[in-house]
Amino acid sequence: MTTPPEGQHNRSTAEALAKQERKVAGVMEMGNLRWVLAGCILVFVIALLLPFTGGHSGLEVLAYTEASRADVKITENLFVWVGTLGVVVFGLITVITRKSTPFLLTWALTTIALIEALLAIWLRQTSEGYTTAFGLYLAIAVVVVAEVVCVMLATRRSPEQQEIARQRRSVDDTDEVGRAQLSASSRAAEETGEVPAALVDDRRAKAAERHRRQGL
After folding, report:
1. What angle do CA 186, 189, 193 make, to 5 degrees?
2. Region Disordered: start and end of each range (predicted)?
């Protein structure tokens, strides 16, 4: 039974480690940040029960009721809709499952909601009419905290992920050494005109020698 070349073995190991890393990354190591995100969900729901703007609650803005349409700007509607999807819906799925896919949706939607919040405040400050109320500011604060949590989770690595990364670096370093040795041997062969023993393909000779010994 022949042994595969070291370079091929390293490539197979690197591919296996990369596959394992993707599998491990599918389930997040959230730690205490899981409960911070759960708190954001709860506070955001509470904020929806409070007045947002023009005497209308966040739930009225979310439901896009006929009474709120005349007083609520589209940026405020977008903030509530996107914020509810990001923080409450996908945030809750992330807390329960710890899967990376709903987390990425949570992160993306909270980022969009934060932009919409800034636009909503700016439009209210530069136009006449109803002013924003405490509920809206509380919801914005929740989105800011959720955004920070998402950034921290995105840069967080579990001990298993760290170990896999260490093993991949080790394989990469081994490949670098092997390539350097092969390059040095090739240069030596060009300069001396002799083929180094490490580069000689002597598999047929070794096979013939084994057959000869078995025949004795």
Report:
1. 155
2. 181-216
For the cut 70, the answer to whether the pLDDT of residue 111 exceeds it is: yes
Q: How far is CA 159 from CA 132, 166, 184, in A?
A: 45, 11, 38
- 106 CB contacts (<8 Å, ≥6 apart)? 37, 86, 87, 90, 91, 94, 146, 150
C-alpha to C-alpha distance for 81 and 62, rounded to whole angstroms: 6
Residues in the chain: 216
With 0-12 / 13-18 / 19 or more C-beta atoms within 10 angstroms meaning exposed / middle / buried, residue 125 is exposed
Output phi, psi for 99, to 5 deg. Answer: -80, 150
Closest C-alpha to 83, from 61, 55, 51: 61
Residue 132: strand pairing partners: 53
Instruction: Please state whether the predicted TM-score (pTM) of the whole model is above 0.70.
Output: no
Question: Strand 56-57 to strand 51-53: parallel, antiparallel, or no bridges (unpaired)?
Answer: antiparallel
User: What is the mean pLDDT of the segment spanning 92-119?
Assistant: 94
Q: How far apart are CA 168 and CA 10, in angstroms?
A: 10
* CA triple 120-71-142, angle to 5 deg: 40
| pLDDT single digits (tens) 118-164 | 998 888 777 666 677 899 999 999 999 999 999 999 887 766 666 66
Largest alpha-carbon pair distance within the chain? Answer: 105
